[in-house]
Amino acid sequence: MKVAIIGIGTTEFGENWDKNLRQLAIEAGTKAIIDAGIRGRDLDAVYLGNMSAGRFVGQEHVAALVSGELGLSIPAIRVEGACASGGLALRQGLFSILSDQHDIILVGGAEKMTDLMTDGVTSSLMGAADQEWEAYYGVTFPSLYAMIARRHMFEFGTTREQMAKVAVKNHHNGSLNPIAQFKKEITVDDVLKSTMVSDPLTLFDCSPITDGAAALILCKAELAKKYVDDPIYIVGSGQASDTLALHDRRSLTTLDATVKAAQGAYKQAGITVKDVDLAEVHDCFTIAEIVATEDLGFCKKGEGGKLLDEKETEIGGRIPVNTSGGLKAVGHPVGATGIKQAVEIVLQLRGKADKRQIKDAKIGLTQNVGGSGATAVVHIFSR
Amino acid sequence: MGHESSVPLFWRLIKTRYQLIGTKCTTCGNVFYPPKYLCPVCRKEGKLEDIKLKKTGKILTFSIVRSAPSGFEKEAPYPVAIIQLDDGPKLTSQIVDWKEKDLKIGRRVEACFRRIYTDGKEGIINYGLKFRPI
After folding, report:
1. φ and ψ at A194, to 5 degrees?
2. Phi and psi dihedrals of B125, rounded to 5?
3. CA-to-CA distance for B118 and A335, rounded, in angstroms?
4. Smallest Cα–Cα separation from B90: which of A143, A371, A246, A145?
């Protein structure tokens, strides 16, 4: 499997109070079109990852909204899988090219979250969990991940300091990323002493509420060199599901959907985990990055915390994770995140990641999760 | 939950929520709570029947919600937990009548009937089971 990425674009991530959903989506999309050196009329379709515009800004039907704003009458499809919406849109876009339906497409992700008050955002995000059997009882996303964290600490001896190190690392990386919502370095102490949100997770363990959009131009591999000299190829894609409710799962400390999605993606790409040079993983909470590094096979189960102690996931480490700053520092506009992850990997593989650049990066991976792990999608990228 | 919903959304689950009635698949013997409408193990070969579950179980993991969603603002901070019932199934609920020492993995708990939250403008009061240490 081989599909080319020939263009990338993102907005700044943050509280973009002066921009609405359509502006964000158009800005990212236009940047990607210009980056690819194509014209809008070259596009055959638009795939848009968006989780909850209906609840965040009262707008549904957002894929047609975006294609309409672009002045295009091509097929436009919204893809929803909670916080994995972006990753799923990418996968659906891939399929449309692999099935010879389209030659060149725009795959975007966009979310406008800050038009709601915080309790409204918290409630809306709970739509990604089981409404009748989790949200009904007052559970929130921080508390679901806090329960994963508590259990991980119990089973494997993972510490609060190790979780804090995820935030410290990702804030450092974010300080090097011009689009990041947070560009300020923090310390382990800052994390441990910040406001408790849901024990044991503090404010600095949580990704923020963010507005933002990101976009990719995908095309058939054989057409790529017609447009750009340095196409990046998607060579593997895997997706899996699990029960919506965390309590229904086989394990509270492994996301089986991630394990399965990764296996599928590695197999399709014809690589093993050892071939991966860097990864963008779904660190919606610090514990999520620890669990992801284990589930993707970067270390043994239970040793995700140790990876941080040994600095293996830092820029310059054995397997750098979230060089962009991750969801934690770049921000987490839910539907846009999966596409933003791909944008970072493309920058790295092009050798254009500036101060965040991983030397000689050849193979990158993205892992995008919906909810507390009911959806997982993994992509593998190659130069 | 932030809904402004009509009552059937809540009332249709009263039996199972209030009385801890789950389902048992007579083909594979698995017990489910919350109840399933299709046995996820046997699927079309499965046959589900209602089963009243014992009220007791243990805490598998927990947290304390300090930043509450709409409808729960006045309750925070409150502990939530994933509880494994003695009959096997796992569920999510709140812990009540607790002291600091009760919030630990493995703590024995039992279900008790409580108000959960009040929904939207109509003020529908939603009830259900929370769990207290035993």
Report:
1. -75, 170
2. -90, 125
3. 30
4. A246
User: For a pLDDT cut of 90, what percent of chain A falls above it?
Assistant: 98
- The correct CATH number of A3-117+210-227 out of 3.40.47.10, 3.40.50.2300, 3.40.50.300, 3.30.360.10 is 3.40.47.10
Task: Please tell me what DSSP assigns to residue A174.
Answer: H
Given an 8 Å threshold on Cβ–Cβ distance, is B61 in contact with A124?
A: no
Size of interface A-B (CB pairs under 8 A): 110
8-state DSSP, B69: P
Cβ within 8 Å of residue B31, ≥6 positions away:
B22, B23, B24, B25, B51, B53, B87, B88, B89
| Structure letter (DSSP) for residue A223 | G
Give the chain B residue whose CA is nearest to the CA of A139.
Answer: B80
> CATH number of the domain at A124-208+234-382, out of 1.10.287.110, 3.40.50.300, 3.30.2010.10, 3.40.47.10?
3.40.47.10
**A224-258 core/surface letters (b: 16 or more CB in 10 A; e: else):** beebbeebbbbbbbbbbbbbbbbbbbebbbbbbbb
Q: Which one of the listed residues A83, A206, A284, A299 is annotated catalytic?
A: A83
Is ipTM over 0.85?
A: yes
Res. A215: pLDDT tops 90: yes
Average pLDDT of chain A, as a whole number: 97
- CB contacts of A197 in chain B (<8 Å) are 66-67
Which chain A residues are within 8 Å of B78, Cβ to Cβ? 138
Q: Which CATH code fits B1-19+55-134?
A: 2.40.50
**pLDDT digits over A299-332, tens only?**
999 999 999 999 999 999 999 999 999 999 999 9
Omega before residue B8 within 30° of 0, cis: no
The answer to whether the beta carbons of residues A256 and A250 sit under 8 Å apart is yes
Contacts of B75 in chain A (CB under 8 A): 138
Any chain A CB within 8 A of the CB of B95?
Answer: no
- Give the β-pairing of A278-280 and A363-370: parallel
Q: Check if B62 contacts A (Cβ < 8 Å).
A: yes
Res. A156 pLDDT band, cuts 50 70 90: very high
pLDDT at position B4 is 63
Q: Is B68 on the interface with A (CB under 8 A)?
A: yes
**Residue of A120, A136, A198 lying closest to B64 (CB–CB):** A198
Same fold, A3-117+210-227 and A124-208+234-382: yes
Nearest chain A residue to B13, by CA: A132
Annotation marks residue A83 as catalytic: yes
The minimal CB distance from A150 to the residues B34, B61, B78 is found for B61
pLDDT tens column, A53-81: 999 999 999 999 999 999 999 999 999 99
The catalytic residue among A102, A152, A171, A332 is A332
CA distance A89 to A79: 5
Question: Is B80–A133 a contact, with Cβ atoms under 8 angstroms apart?
Answer: no
